[in-house]
Amino acid sequence: MHLNPYGEDAVNLAADLVNRPPADAVELADRCRAAGLVVDRPATSADLDRARAALRAWERVVDATDEHERAESVNRMLEEAAAYPRMTDHAGSGWHLHYRDDRKPLGDVLFSLISVGTALHLTGRGMHRLRRCAVTECDMAFADTSRTGRQRYCSQLCANRDAVRRHRARDHGKGAASMYKGKSSSSVRKSITGSV
Question: What is the largest CA-CA distance in the chain?
Fold first, then answer.
């Protein structure tokens, strides 16, 4: 049995390519293969350009401010990548569905894969399940594939960084409050302003 390759794998590949853009067509093909995509012909600069267009469109989906804007952005991608679904055994690994022609070049394949995968991910898991990392200085995009649908960070590293920051802010606030505990408001004002 083949599970549908669209959805989680497609949005994770899109996030990876957006967050670490491939330098050239060879790297694009290598990273697609590493993600499990069958790449049966050499990638070209046209494939890289088409993939970049798909990724720019996908970032508009990620950065949409509400569900309707997000849906409209996905629908524009689907329209541009339109192809009818078909059964295929192109890799000799068993019959499965593709939402594209197997003879398409890699750039077009990625556009279709990312478009359909994003639509399936959002409709199946929730329209809020694409976002940017909650850490202010991190702008990484990610697909929330968590069980609860509450993922806020692109990685455990960013989650830990933010937790440490919040902890230090709480401790700093507690320290300042205890320093002035029991003092009159005029003596607190004098110690803050430095006046005597």
Answer: 84
